[in-house]
Input
Amino acid sequence: MESIPDATPLSTISIPGSHESLTLYGGIFVRCQSWTLDKQLQVGLRYFDVHAGIWFPGKEVGIWNSAMVFWQHIQFSEVLKIILEFLTQNKSETVLLKVTLHGFYQKQATEKIMKLIEQFRDRIWTELEVPNMQQARGKIVFLQSDTLSTGTKNYNSFFLENNQFIKMKEKLKEAQTELCGRKIILTDVTTYFKNPKTVAKTFNQQLNNIIVENQMSLNPRCLGVLSLTYPSPDLIEKIIEINPCICSKGGEYAEIASEPATTPQPAVAEPSTTSGPSTEPTSEHSSESPEPQTPSFPESATQSPAPEQVSETSVEPPNTSEPESPTPEHEYESPEQQTTTEEPGTESATSEQVAEPSAEPPNTSEPESPTPEQDSESSEQQNTTEEPSTDKLQNRQQNHQIHLNQNHRHQNKTLNHLNH
Output
């Protein structure tokens, strides 16, 4: 019981127990158990059905069979001592105890039992309401009987008909509301005038099949308290493995959906009709990083700007393309540029126009064919440029001849000086 939450009501837990727990003597038609009390505690039984009474006045309360014919060689005070010692060593556990009195001296037996309860008041639960696990841990929880009204109320289950489980699915479903409503339901077999071992074979096998089927269903149910005759360790273990009832805050049983809940699929976003990139989040949110999407741009953004849109203050941008062939205007200007480099200060108006940076953007279109007027002007300018170039060539030749004559004279003087 250590793993059960503290707030769990005791009524919602499936608890294995024993019928006529201490009836170990009296023959095959009387004996209902083969284990002693401490052994039953060790194998996992947590509910005990005890029959007690006083045979002679002034005697202690002894343990008997249900017909009060065979004494079971143990006193009620010893029963409390064994259980309390077990709970001292196992503080997370709790033990349910139901005491039924027999004989002519039930009043005296009740007084003696109440004195024992007062002696261990802090370790025995006798309240009327059903405790939760936090309130019950380490304590004996007394259940009321027809002859001893001290303790918590409990109710006989309607699972059995002549020691047979009938229509268990419907009955278990109906019992869940009562169990969640803090009502302890007790299922007990009847062994009067029957061989307890024969009853146990049929009853325990049926109960085993019901537990297996219940655990495999989509809505497993809790079974309350089960009082067994000759229970096997395997059957006890299966009862312990049943989970407590799932109850709502209002004390009602919370039904588990018969079909698994489906997670609603997120709505898929419709594709954007604009040409720009979408700024809305995608409909799926996964841990994986989304694939990068290439944004779409309008066609006008990818086209080169028109010449009219270039700023007038821009200087000619660097041209990374192959140099274009010179236009006719540049062809007839090139000889004049050569003359200006040789004789500075005689620059013409045409060279000044070339040196100044053009405010207009470079014209990447094909050159227009020159008009007849432009052809005549270019031919006149070419003639004027050819005449200065011929005179300069003759001057160069004359200067070169003079320079040679001077060198020759200098060499003759040097030779004459050496001869003297």
The beta strands are 15-18, 47-53, 62-64, 71-75, 95-102, 124-125, 140-143, 154-156, 184-188, 225-228. The chain has eleven helices and ten strands. Confidence is low (pLDDT under 50) at residues 257-388. Residues 216 and 328 are 99 Å apart (CA to CA).
